[in-house]
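[job 0412] stage=complex_fold ligand=adenosine-5'-diphosphate status=START
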Amino acid sequence: MLIIGLAGGTGSGKTTVVHQIMTELPDTEVGVISQDSYYKETTNLSFDERALINFDHPRSIDFELLVKHLKALKAGETIDQPVYSFIQHNRTDDTVSTHPRKVMIVEGILILTNPELRELFDIKIFVHADSDERLVRRLKRDISERGRDIDEVLNRYQNTLKPMHEQFIEPSKAFADIIIPNDKYNTVAIDVVRAVINQRIS
Ligand SMILES: Nc1ncnc2c1ncn2[C@@H]1O[C@H](COP(=O)(O)OP(=O)(O)O)[C@@H](O)[C@H]1O
Ligand SMILES: Nc1ccn([C@@H]2O[C@H](COP(=O)(O)O)[C@@H](O)[C@H]2O)c(=O)n1
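[job 0412] stage=complex_fold status=DONE, emitting structure tokens
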């Protein structure tokens, strides 16, 4: 199994890049795990308390479960990947049965900050976009897809997202083997990554 870790700030385009990479690749051969699925379970908290969580700090992620699941996939086992709700700020009761594939892509803002997880990656990729571009994308996406309003996004950006990006996410770029500039759609970089994957699965 080839395990690719794909990091980058919020709105850098990680999810989009993963979809672009997977286009034309057989989905029986390539699977995806999202770090967002592994936000810690916080059913003990009220909705208002959950909304105050710093979701850009590494401690908000259940890295232990993520590492356990990745190791299980590597050992040929099927896992139940949690499903996260950005509306409820919590895991749902659903899971997605995820089978091991020849190539597994793990994507998320903080995945290169965790040493144990980094050890499992054969290729580490960081998707870069400028912070103003990322904020614009984040605003549009969170309002249209994640049930947020402009105040929520901007408050979170100022209070936690920007400082955490500078403290944890941007420095983790140093661990990357490949950096994809993604202020504009970058078809050349996508082709290169797809070629590496094709080589592995052919
Ligand atoms: N290169 C790009 N140029 C313009 N918009 C983009 C680009 N990449 C992604 N987007 C858009 O930006 C938003 C955030 O992208 P997404 O892939 O969800 O980012 P991430 O997963 O890193 O948070 C989406 O609406 C997506 O369509
Ligand atoms: N309940 C939550 C959980 C996370 N976030 C934000 O999501 C961002 C990470 O996801 P991307 O798809 O953008 O990489 C992160 O910046 C968290 O602030 C949230 O808003 N609400």
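Residues 63 and 114 are 8 Å apart (CA to CA).
[job 0412] exit 0
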